Amino acid sequence: MAEIWGMYVGVKLASELGIRKLVVESDSKCAITLTQKMSPEIHGNSSLIRSIKELLVKMEDVEVRHIYREANFCADALAKLGQEHELGIKFWEQPPPCLFHHLLADASGMKFSRIVVQ
Question: Which GO terms describe its molecular function (predicted)?
Fold first, then answer.
């Protein structure tokens, strides 16, 4: 599950950088539930989930929350960009060009509707 791996890499990096206060957001309700509520032993990625929980508990102030995909355009664009590069972590000094419109929309307070089909 890519969302669990992404969460692990992000939390691990925050821990290595000495970040003590962290907000983790994901549009994967499953990833949020697994790291907050469920016992990881019942999931195929149990060791990874356990590692995330161990890192989070060492931090001073952590909030793990679900956000809707419509509020997560930058993360989705970065995930797509990551599929085009070789494995590993990539750092940018400036946001990559694919984020320009998403960051501009966010900075201007643009809102997006969520359509729910029942």
Answer: nucleic acid binding; RNA-DNA hybrid ribonuclease activity
